[in-house]
TrEMBL record:
Gene3D superfamilies named among the record's database cross-references: 1.20.1050.10, Glutaredoxin (3.40.30.10)
Domain called GST N-terminal: residue spans: 13-76
GO cellular component terms attached to this protein's record: cytoplasm
PANTHER family xref list: PTHR43968, S-TRANSFERASE, PUTATIVE (AFU_ORTHOLOGUE AFUA_2G00590)-RELATED
Family from the record: Belongs to the GST superfamily.
Protein name as catalogued: GST N-terminal domain-containing protein
C-alpha cells in the first residue's frame, strides 16, 4: 500500500526546502498544501501544527513537524542514498556525524552569516563576515575532511546536504 503523504509548506521558507529536497531526491509522490505565512494561521492549520510553522508532513494521517525531523523521517522511511540503512554501528556513526555536522553549522556559524548579510554598515558586514569565516574554518571545516563531492566522501547527495540545504536547494528544487 502506498503511503498518503501531504506536505504543508511555503515555497518561500528555506526550512521547508529541506522537506522538498528530501521528497524530490527520494522521488516520493505527495500532495502539497501551501500555507500563507503572511497572515495568521488558520485554526485548521493550527490543529495540524500548533506552532504554525512549516513544514508539516502528514504521513498516513500522522503529523510530523520540524524540517530536520521531517527530512530524517523520510530518509528512514524510504531507504536510499541519503543515509545508510540502519541497524549497524557504521550506519549509526554516519547518522551521528551528519547530525553533528548540521547541528554545528546551525549552532556555531549560521547566525554569523545572517549577521553579515543584514549588517547596517559596511564595517559591521566586514567584521561579521570575518568572524563567519573564522568560525567556519574552526568549527565546520574539520568535519568535512573526508567530504567530496558530498558529506563523508559520498558520491551522491546525503542527508547532510538536505539539512544544510543552502548549497543544493536551488539545484534540487528546479527538478521538481
Amino acid at each position: 500500500m502506498t503511503a498518503k503523504i501531504k506536505l504543508y509548506t511555503n515555497h518561500g521558507c528555506p526550512w521547508a526546502h529541506r522537506a522538498h529536497i528530501a521528497l524530490a531526491e527520494l522521488k516520493i509522490p505527495f500532495e502539497e498544501e501551501i500555507i500563507d505565512l503572511s497572515v495568521p494561521r488558520t485554526p485548521e492549520y493550527l490543529a495540524i501544527n500548533p506552532r504554525g510553522l512549516v513544514p508539516s508532513l502528514s504521513y498516513n494521517g500522522q503529523i510530523i513537524t520540524e524540517s530536520a525531523i521531517v527530512a530524517q523521517f523520510l530518509a528512514d522511511a524510504y531507504p536510499s542514498h541519503l543515509v545508510p540503512n540502519g541497524g549497524t554501528p557504521e550506519a549509526a556513526l554516519t547518522r551521528a556525524r551528519i547530525n553533528f555536522f548540521v547541528d554545528t553549522f546551525f549552532s556555531k556559524v549560521n547566525s554569523l552569516y545572517h549577521k553579515a548579510l543584514f549588517a547596517k554598515t559596511d564595517e559591521e558586514a566586514e567584521e561579521a563576515a570575518a568572524e563567519f569565516v573564522k568560525q567556519l574554518e574552526k568549527e565546520v571545516e574539520p568535519l568535512l575532511s573526508d567530504a567530496g563531492p558530498y558529506f563523508g566522501g559520498s558520491k551522491t547527495l546525503t542527508l547532510a546536504e538536505v539539512c544544510y540545504h543552502k548549497n543544493k536547494r536551488d539545484e534540487t528544487l528546479e527538478k521538481t
